[in-house]
Write a structure and sequence with these properties.
Elements: H1 6-16, E1 19-22, E2 34-35, E3 41-44, E4 50-54, E5 72-77, E6 85-91, E7 100-111, E8 117-121, E9 132-134, E10 143-155, E11 161-167, E12 171-183, H2 193-199
Antiparallel strand pairs: 1-12, 2-4, 3-6, 4-5, 5-12, 6-11, 7-10, 7-12, 8-9, 8-11
Amino acid sequence: MKRVPTLAVAALLAIALPVIAGVNGGEFDSMPLGPYQGPADILEGDPNNVQIRPVDAGTSHGAPIPPGAMGNMLCVDAVNKSSRIVVEFTFSCDPVTGGVCEVSYDFSVAQWSGSGVEVFVDPMGDYSNPSDVIDLPVGFPPSTAAGDNTETRGDCDGSSHTLTFVVFPGSILYLDNLTTTCLLPTDNDESTWGKVKVRYR
């Protein structure tokens, strides 16, 4: 029986699996409960309405717990506010030739009124062309949604990018599990018609 060296197996696994890293300021479990202290930036709105909360304490305003959320999560609460709250995280993907950089997060939202939540990647400060929109029907009780989203930045080139959440009045957002993944390229499986015929004889 031929044995493959352990080092060779590890190298093959490294090629086959995506490269995963965190988002700067997105690891909430190690942060104290209460007002969020960074390092993500609160660009607009009252910092007291951006809080670290334990998942096991549940959520307010009827929002479900984000899928996969554990430990602590971030709450951005604009339910009783007259202006939006803008929170911006930075992220990067390690340089990998041909790789595609993707940032992901788990979320839940409750919306009473207003325009919900918009998500931007590298927005240039204008917030006019969102990468994603969590826009729910307005009603009483509030409309809710939860899920896991991914936003694709582009090539894995090691440069720094921003992920920005704009929470409009009448909405509340919970976030957890912010990560980046460099999706590695895969080789094309090219086959001729002759090879296909042989395979299925």
